[in-house]
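Problem 12. The chain below contains 205 residues. Write out its predicted structure in token notation.
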Amino acid sequence: MLAVPRFAAQHAADHTRDDQQRIALGPDLPAGTAGPDERDVLALLRSAYPYLPADSAGDGPGARPTAMVTTARAVRRAAQRARQAAYSGPDSMEVYNDLVVGKYSWVPDDDHPGPAAAELEKLPIHWLKDWMLCLDVECRPRPETLLHRLYGTVTSYEPDTGRVLFSPTGGHPAIAVPIHRIVALTGDRQRRSDGQVPAHEPYDG
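Solution.
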């Protein structure tokens, strides 16, 4: 993030308009101010990537999933009930294999921890970093939240804290996403490599 004269920022944006969202213009800084307002900084960052760690920072200790998240989870669970029943057990490699290719979605427990937390803990998490995955999450500060799909790799899972460490596509540093913000984790059936997927896209359920 840079503070530059308006004409220079506009010139740079004009020359990158074919590469959408590569440069995003923020608001003008009032004369004599020491720096930008934090809300303006977060809004500018959010124009480049929909989920920020600051989004969940205000949820507070013991935060629970919102009604929007639990409803979306219920839809995802219902859509895969038949496939889940066919697995031989919660630690089956069938779950892992179907997860990474998008045949199966891991959906967190509404009351963490529960069966879903145990299932994820038993999977070979260290192998997940080799696969491009979709993380469907609740973005923005509450109560004005929305659902979005992020692409990247899962680098680790912390069962005690209920956090998934997720590295956005493009080799970016991992960010911590709390379980109460996650709708589902799965692979993409058609797009499985860094060059095939966007960094994020709207959630389509």
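Discussion. The longest helix spans residues 67-79. Students who got a different answer should revisit the alignment rule from Section 12.3.
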